[in-house]
Design a protein that fits this description.
Length: 204
């Protein structure tokens, strides 16, 4: 069973709809019992980093997620804010994250504010930095859909699968062991996004 974690911060309906296209065994839940039974997890998210961490804490999910992901090595896919929460710290709210990546979350600091509007919104390309099963069938410079004001800054280049340029290069895909993350929204990225979801569901 794949559980899309409901912590009050996501466009859960569109994520579920996309996952249902490649698997019948997907649910949305905030139940500790159902998350405990999950064979794979998805942490979507749209909104403020500090609210996301607060909601996970209020749902009493922090210890369970750490056990599932870091001890039991259950695969997890973070989407947008969900990926950012994997970091150690965010400057959006000045709060700690889950700490699974040696990374921090920073606001876009663009020089040409007329050309590069913040938030970064719309279609942009991915430069693949490292081959990975999550990206099977994805070509260099494929377009994916982004909506975000902050982005992750990795301090270990080995964790970076892909980068995107918006005024400057930023990390848009990360992976370490069983933990995967995309800054873009695969559920809004048509066929190529669905391919990434299919790879996560069936190949990882």
């Amino acid at each position: 069973m794949i559980v899309i974690i409901d912590y009050g911060m996501g466009n859960l309906g569109s994520v579920l709809k996309s996952f249902k296209k490649v698997s019948d065994n997907v649910i949305i839940s905030s139940s500790k019992e159902e998350i405990e039974r999950a064979k794979k997890l998805v942490l979507p998210g749209v909104g403020h980093f500090s609210n996301g961490m607060k909601n996970l804490k209020d749902l009493d999910l922090l210890d369970l997620l750490h056990e599932k992901v870091m001890i039991n090595r259950v695969p997890i896919l973070g989407i947008c804010l969900g990926m950012q929460l994997f970091s150690k710290f965010s400057h959006e709210g000045e709060v700690s994250g889950l700490g699974w990546f040696d990374a921090e979350v920073v606001r876009f600091n663009v020089n040409d504010k007329l050309r590069f509007k913040v938030p970064h919104m719309g279609w942009n390309s991915i430069q693949i930095e490292k081959e990975n099963i999550l990206l099977d069938g994805i070509l260099q410079s494929e377009l994916f859909y982004f909506v975000h004001t902050y982005h992750i800054k990795c301090f270990d280049n080995n964790d970076i699968l892909g980068i995107t340029n918006y005024s400057y290069d930023f990390t848009s895909i990360i992976q370490k062991d069983n933990i995967f993350g995309t800054q873009f929204h695969p559920e809004k990225s048509h066929g190529k996004g669905l391919k990434i979801i299919k790879n996560f569901v069936h190949k990882i």
